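just leaving the lab so this will be short. what follows is a protein written twice so to speak, once as letters and once as structure tokens for the fold. can you read through it and tell me how you think this chain folds. anything you notice is useful, everything is just below:
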Amino acid sequence: MNGMNKTEGMTVEEVMRRDKRFRYMLLARLQSDCEYYLGFGNRSTGRLWADEARQSEWMPRLYDGFPEDEKPRWLTREEIAEYANRMLVDR
């Protein structure tokens, strides 16, 4: 992880206590990392915020932490599951 990672060493429970804006931004970062990793990043784990397993664990937990009427419109639970599947199963 790079030096700019303010969540390094934090648990998902600690992140879930952060404000909504922070959690939206982190979820967007994780999605962006997945897109790059699965595309032009050639599955280089150095391009991920965390390893594949941790990314796949954190994304649904962050998403599910938003009330139904505040869930991101730019990402669905199904897309998150697809990222996890592609990162962990389709190796």
